[in-house]
Structure formats: C-alpha cells, structure tokens
Amino acid sequence: MSLPKMTAVLLSLLACVAQAGTNDLSRGGTAATNGLAAATLSRLTGFVKADVRTAYHARGRILERGPMAMTLSRLGYDTDLLGRFGFWNWNVSSLGRSRQSVHRRPFHEVDVGAYWRYDVAFDDAAKWKLTTDVMKDWITLDGYTESYRARKVNATISEWRLEQALENPYVTPYYLIRRGVHPTDWTYYRTGVRHAFKLPWDFTFTPAFFVESGDERFYERRYGAPVDKRRRHHSGPMSVNLLLDLSWKASDNLSFYANVQQYDLVSESARDNVRARNVREGRRDLTIFAAGLRVRF
Predict the structure, then answer these.
(1) pLDDT digits (tens, 9 = 90+) for 56-105
(2) Strand pairing category for 84-94 and 68-78
(3) From the DSSP assignment, how many helices (H) and strands (E) are in the chain?
(4) Torsion angle of the four alpha carbons 267, 272, 278, 279, in this order, in degrees rounded to the nearest 10
(5) Which of 1, 118, 189, 280 has the fewest CB atoms within 10 Å, i.e. is most exposed?
C-alpha cells in the first residue's frame, strides 16, 4: 500500500474514533443533564387547597358573614439539610354582592409571601417530630378600609409569622404567632391542640380546639377602642374555637374535605363593641361550614 493510501486510511480511522467519542460525550452530557433536572424536580413540593365557606373568620374576628370562596397554594424546594424554602398565596373572595354597601365592593383579600419550613424528627419512623414554619407575608384587602389603616384603601399589611407543632401519635399541641409590622405594630397569638383519627375507607376525622388572643394594640385593630371609656382591652383570650374536619383520600395526590367550626368571642370588651354595632360584620358567636378539596404534588 502506498504512503498516500495508508495516510488516508489512518485519517479515516481517526475520524471514526473521534466521532464515536463525541457521541459518547454527547450522550453522557445529556444523561447528566436529565438526571440533574429529575433530581431538582423531585425536590419540588406543591400544595393547593380550595373550598367554599359560609363566612370568613380571621385572627379572632368574623370579617364577612356571606358565602366565600378560598384558595391556598404553596410551592417549595426541599433542600433536605436546610429545610424547605418556598412561596405561598392565599385568596378569599365574597361570592355575593350583598355587602357592597358596607365594603364599597365585594370583599376580596389577597396574601402573598415566602416561607421556610424545618422538621426535626425524634425517632426513625418520624412519629414524633417538631415542625417549624417561618413566614413573611403581605396582605391586601381590596376596597376594604379600617380606622387604623389611616383611610387608605388597599393599603398593604405586612407581618411575620412563626408556627410550631409537636407531631405525635397522641395529641398534637401547636402555637402560631403573627407580628404586624406595617402600617401598625401588633401581636396575635393562637394556641391549640388537634388529633387525626384514621377511619375505614380512607376517611380521616380531625377535631381541633384553639384559643385566639393578642396584645392591647391588636384588640384595638380588630375591634376598635372599648365602648366603655373607663375600660381597656386586656391581652387575655379573645375567642375560643372548635373545628371538626372530615376528609376522604381519593388518591395519593387528591383528597376532599368538609368541616364545621364553632366560633365564640369571649372577650367582654370586644363583645361590648360588637353588641354596640361598632364592628363591621362582627359576631359574638357563629357556626361556619366549609367544603373543598386538597391537591398535593
């Protein structure tokens, strides 16, 4: 074989080897990229909850007594070592226009925020664990004004939240602290207990009892100054609540639920203000019904 022909053959062989190596690298790179994307997606968690209810209770007070639609959604990334970080959104809207004379337009609230969740398990099966949620949120109330908001319509309320629960096979105690930082500063507390009873056919019954309270500034933000000028709001219990929830697990990702809540305002100064009709939509006692669905992914 002549030298030119040998050179041509060697060059052809080198070209084939180079092409094969390039293909292998390309396949390896694609596999690595796909693996990274799959690993990232597997750490994403989501939650959507939607229901209709007969009234809207929030932070120790009845804000609306008409039928309401509510949605809550969360999207987070589980870092495993540092917990879960993500964003959340809450929407609640009046389904009727009967309160237009009170609120100038149907009630509508939109909350957005960021959260961090961290769980500490005390046993291998995680039957005992401490859950911690820290949230920063911003609340807007469309067309709804309160005296403490300086007559600003749609002004944003800014607050921080801290919630912890000790999950266990018996009774789970928990507490929630909400700290308002803008436009005014106040502190709200909720403490309670709950337990989930597993029933046949994938039903779960969860009773919960909780007490709401706050500092004096919070009382005034929710109910105004005491009607009796000789009295002051105290920082003790504001309301007591009993919630009974029944859910049915349709699949690993979908469940349906219905619940009933009995709300009772126990603060005498707050009850006096409601009795004097100084609190919009306020009620001293109310039974609230709700039904909806939950989706997890």
Answers:
(1) 999 999 988 889 999 999 999 999 889 999 999 999 998 876 555 554 46
(2) antiparallel
(3) 4, 15
(4) 30
(5) 1
